[in-house]
Amino acid sequence: MHPPTPEMARAAAILESGGLVAFPTETVYGLGADAENPAAVAKIYAAKGRPQDHPVIVHVAPDADLSYWACDIPAEAHQLAAAFWPGPLTMILKRAPNIPAAVSGGQDTVGLRCPSHPVAIALLQAFKQGKGGVAAPSANKFGNVSPTTARHVHDEFDAGGALDLVLDGGQSQVGIESTIVDLSRLGTHGPVLLRPGHISAQAIAAVIDLLPAAPDAEAPRASGTLESHYAPHTPVAMQETAVLRATLAQLAASGRKVALIHYSELALPQASLRLPLEPEGFAHALYAALRTMDGAGADVILVEAPPKDGAWLGVNDRLRRAAHGSAGIVHGLLNKAPF
Ligand code: TXA
Ligand code: MG
User: Fold this and answer.
1) What residues are in contact with ligand 1 under a 6 Å CB criterion?
2) What is the best residue among 27, 180, 183 to mutate for testing ligand 1's pocket, by most ligand atoms within 8 Å of CB?
3) d(Cα 18, Cα 37) in Å, to the nearest integer?
4) Domain match, 97 and 185 both
């Protein structure tokens, strides 16, 4: 392991003294605090405006000792860590008694993930000599779109505010949050997919020979699974290509301002962004696109519905939540006078 750079040593010192450091990961940017310092973790909740009973993910360095953080660890957790860490997979395990309940919103579990972004790894290796855990939700206000650049983090939190440092690691490669798999009730419920992401249920099944199921009523709560989440301020509507063509024409005729996120050749409204018709590329660009279109001053952000097959599960999940509060918005715009 190399000695930490001066910037990384400073970031680690801030965390060790109970401060907040935003840092890049391969999925989205995180808002980090010392996971073993409840007062520091409380600052995350305050900065985000997030309810106290929502658990946060604990980020650990490569080769971290899982048994320090969790207990009753099934063999499958070690297999998944070996296969996917560092990488965009979070595992929910039974929390070890020495880990403060504050990081898991009082639940008896803990979410663990080792991110693969080199800046995140350098930070985790510098912090407590690689033995610490950095509690970090996405670095955005509660319910907002997750940040995929340092600029987005600055846009979410005013300068001189709650954050002590924002590390810049460029644009996050994956672009949507990690896959979350619950292994804390493996013996009774099998693995459960709490949040779809870049690592699919099938990829998990290929390693542990068990296909993660959809969440049941008793599954651990995850705020990323709230119906309305990851949402811009402008209403979002998702439509199939043919319907979308008609909607674009109708909204144009009625003088409405539309921001469009699409992949097909379409008649373009005032603002538009074209994303690749390929799940990895679409996910990579999605949150930045939602933020840009949110700034376009439009009446609605229209999104061309992506394909429905398995590889698009994570993208469709995030889009559905972004659009959740906007049901009927297109109909409403067409049936109300614009002025
Ligand atoms: O990709 C990611 O996971 C990003 C980066 C920063 O690592 N983090 C992230 O954190 O998305 P956040 O807090 O925005 O979402 C974490 C999700 C939440 O839905 C939370 O409820 C769930 O993980 N979670 C964390 N610990 C949990 C636990 N012990 N039991 C159930 N859900 C948990
Ligand atoms: Mg989040």
Assistant:
1) 25, 27-28, 30, 54-57, 88, 90, 92, 104, 107, 109-111, 113, 115, 136-138, 177-178, 180, 194, 220-225
2) 180
3) 7
4) yes
